Amino acid sequence: MPLNDLWGRLEFKHFVNSLLRLSPPFCKIYSNPKHAEPLHNMPRDNIEFQTADHVTLRGWFFRPPTKAPETRLHCLVMSHGFSALKEMELDTFAEYFTQNLPISCLVYDNRGFGDSDTKEGQPRHEILPSQQTSDISDAITYAQSRADVDPDRIGIWGSSYSGGHVLWVGAVDRRVKVVLSQVPFVDGWQNMGRLIRPDIMEALNKSYQEGMRVRGRRCSSFL
After folding, report:
1. Containing H/E element for 106?
2. Is there a single domain that holds both residue 100 and residue 174?
3. Which of 89, 93, 96, 160 could form a disulfide with 81 if both were Cys (CB 3.0 to 4.6 A apart)?
4. Lowest-confidence range among 65-79, 85-99, 141-155, 185-199?
């Protein structure tokens, strides 16, 4: 293995370990006001980027104020779970990371939620895992295009529903160097069994199937 490649791997391993060490103290932010004071005052830029199917997603880009703008930093791409918006504490995680580590963070709203668009003719607030995982890869592409990001040092972070997504993306997108998954959603059927009462499961399944049939008829009408 070339020496520079080995050094890069060791450097990124240190970056990952630093992120993991930060996670437990983060819980104290909510219980101790002193920990919360430095947050929500980190500089951030409004950003937008295009997905592969030409949908505009919008979010924020955070970087440490102590780093020169031309410095290329590691970047952590962060997406929220299920129907949550970036304002629902995703910014708090990003601010905490950029305040304590020499990294940048890219956070964004999932398509159809918050400030992000959806495809023309498609409803908002629709959650399709295949689209959301594809959008994470598109967010990586945008991050790599920035002059202040090291394109070879990209990590992804997800929580709950997106925690499952990042496991998938990390397995298929070779550009990802680290995956941070918090309380991941990895088994839909098992989770349904825990959340839905058994006596209404059959009716719920029928409603899902009918919804898929309606969607199929709607799509065929455009052909």
Report:
1. strand 103-108
2. yes
3. 160
4. 185-199
